[in-house]
Description:
With 123 residues, this protein is mainly α. It has 2 helices and no strands. The termini are far apart.
Amino acid sequence: MATKTVxxxxxxxxxxxxxxxxxxxxxxxxxxxxxxxxxxxxxxxxYASELRRHYENMRVRERLVYKENLELKRANExxxxxxxxxxxxxxxxxxEVIKLKGGSxxxxxxxxxxxxxxxGGSQ
Length: 123
């Protein structure tokens, strides 16, 4: 039976020792980076939950602003109706005043043009 003999050389042991030491250092860095990654993951999860909370708050505010905007639109429409009614009443009242003074009811724009022409010619 033939047996193999393994020679141990000084150079081979040094290389194996360096490889083992390098492997050990690599494992230490992996453990440290894993711990760092876990901490970063936890902080990102906390940040994401904070963003979700802010988003929900913004949605609530958006709904409130939307409702207020609708109420303001309705109020504006009501004011426009009142304004148009008052404008009509004002025109009717001006026409009534003109009738009572003995003139014919004209629009104030036509009257102004006629007054300017007569004033412009007498100067």
